[in-house]
Amino acid sequence: GAGVSQSPSNKVTEKGKDVELRCDPISGHTALYWYRQSLGQGLEFLIYFQGNSAPDKSGLPSDRFSAERTGGSVSTLTIQRTQQEDSAVYLCASSTHPGTSNTGELFFGEGSRLTVL
Amino acid sequence: KNEVEQSPQNLTAQEGEFITINCSYSVGISALHWLQQHPGGGIVSLFMLSSGKKKHGRLIATINIQEKHSSLHITASHPRDSAVYICAAGAIGADGLTFGKGTHLIIQP
Question: Is 80 exceeded by the pLDDT of residue B68?
């Protein structure tokens, strides 16, 4: 596609339910990042993929969070047993270069707004 | 741990004014990004730099590696420049970026 696509754009769920967020990066971009932005807070790094592997999972806030990437393309971020503090906008970005030590320009999706009631 | 501080947190200026937003970071970095986020909109990458200065239209970004400081300047500011400007630093050897909390800029006509 022309840009990074994320779905759903909005998700309202009840506490305790599982949610899955999807990111479709720009074709050919090998690096993919997940971030989240809580209300009134800055952006928080969650996880980075280079191809299908995730060399850096250091930002995942708890073991309820997991992510995978298949075919070097689409990535899904799964949050199990959602809590109210998980409410945030989850942003995906992709770039042509692996990692920020030699990174190219980052292209962001519009984000998925998650609200946990 | 890399700390990224931005100032000011909020800035309101009149159309035409010269704008400066500052970013300081605490560890050696491989790259520094300036990002723009419009209300309700996505994030757009403005600059990625590791040394010196870059210019794009009315926007200029500079970085001083020794002082661990970067600035974003907007010349002849316009109401459409109103947005949140975010600085993000990539520490050497790290893959994730550390983000500043952003500067909320409002340009009044």
Answer: yes
Strand A112-116 versus strand A10-13 pairing type? parallel
Tell me which of A100, A101, A102, A106 to substitute to probe the interface with B (most B C-beta atoms closer than 10 Å).
A100
| DSSP reduced 3-state for A39 | coil
pLDDT at B100 over 70: yes
Centre a 10 Å sphere on the Cβ of residue B104 and count the other Cβ atoms it contains. Answer: 16
* B95: contact with A, CB 8 A cutoff: yes
Please state, rounded to an integer, the average pLDDT across all residues of chain B: 91
State the pLDDT at residue A100: 47
Provide the number of CB pairs (under 8 Å) joining chain A to chain B.
69
Closest CA to B107 of B2, B6, B18: B18
The distance of A71 to chain B (nearest Cα, Å) reads 21
